Amino acid sequence: MEQKLNEISLQAGREIITAATQEELRQIQVRYLGKKGEITTILRGMGQLAPEQRPLVGSLANRVRDELSEMIDSRTEELKEVLRRQRMAEQRVDVTLPGRPVNIGYRHPLSIIMEQIAEIFLGLGFTIAEGPEIESDYYNFEALNLPQDHPAREMQDSFYIRPDILLRTHTSPVQVRTMEKTAPQAPVRIIAPGKVYRRDDDATHSPMFHQVEGLVIDRNISLSDLKGTLLLFAQQMFGAKQQVRLRPSFFPFTEPSAEVDMSCVMCGGGGCRVCKDSGWIEILGSGMVHPNVLAMSGYDPEEFTGYAFGMGVERIAMLKYGIDDLRQFFTNDFRMLRQFR
């Protein structure tokens, strides 16, 4: 029995040392140390030995079993290291290769202009207000002094979802909603940026475009406050030499109303093709909040006055960057958009 154990030790040791894979080691372990393995069979047959032989054979069998287990564990670690090195060699990265360029995103020119407009007015003490893009007829028209039969509704071709629900044609409903929430508290000083929708589509109009409207409500607000605010905006957006002028106009929700012109950004007011030799470019509409609008929103027009203005973000961006076709903002042409990194 002792000779048999010695032979098993030598034979198994050679097989373990020469095993090339972990699967081979597993088979060796099963063959010699498993439940039906050779050493296990010897241990189970010790009852047939003479009593004086059992301690010697048992001790030798246990020693052989422990030695083989240690050799298998050691060889397993060696094979794992070999496999690891093989994988590292196969997956080796050539650090001398040039790196792959990483495409870095950048903001859309309209987002840049929206942020610049917001930054200017936030610096003047305004806050940002938002509202729904799907709006009721009441907030989009009636609360702005535009009843059902008002002819001024023809100025805005609207996308109606139902007779009383539409895609907002301006961000003025945000002004009404804000006044309803704050009345009769004052002052109110907000801008309302966002998307609006009208049935227009040509080089200077789009069915979807962006507006920033402003509203100030307080006691003793005058037209000079409006002009001073818009002059400061024009100078911060287009340069310190810019001037503005107000031309009488008509908007149902303001009285008096004015179109606001800015000295031409191309010629500095001297006259050119862009400004049609007038030296002025129209940039936005404005006026004093109509007393009817104040009253419908909860403010006493005898006590409070205010001004409002609205500008098209695309219009400002076209003047800022010298773009002559509004549709370029929405064609996703990277040749144009990459210029604003």
Spell out the blueprint of helices and strands:
Layout: H1 2-18, H2 22-33, H3 38-44, H4 54-90, H5 109-123, E1 127-128, E2 134-136, H6 137-140, E3 160-162, E4 165-167, H7 172-182, E5 188-197, E6 208-218, H8 223-238, E7 244-251, E8 254-263, E9 280-289, H9 291-296, E10 305-312, H10 313-321, H11 334-337
Helix pairs in contact: 1-2, 1-4, 2-4, 5-10
What does this structure look like?
This protein has 341 residues and is of the alpha+beta class. The protein has 2 domains: 2-90; 109-340, Bira Bifunctional Protein, Domain 2 (BirA Bifunctional Protein, domain 2, 2-Layer Sandwich). It is 40% helix and 20% strand. It contains 11 helices and 10 strands. It has helices at residues 2-18, 22-33, 38-44, 54-90, 109-123, 137-140, 172-182, 223-238, 291-296, 313-321, 334-337, and strands at residues 127-128, 134-136, 160-162, 165-167, 188-197, 208-218, 244-251, 254-263, 280-289, 305-312. A hairpin with a 2-residue loop joins strand 7 and strand 8 (254-263). The relative contact order is 0.10.
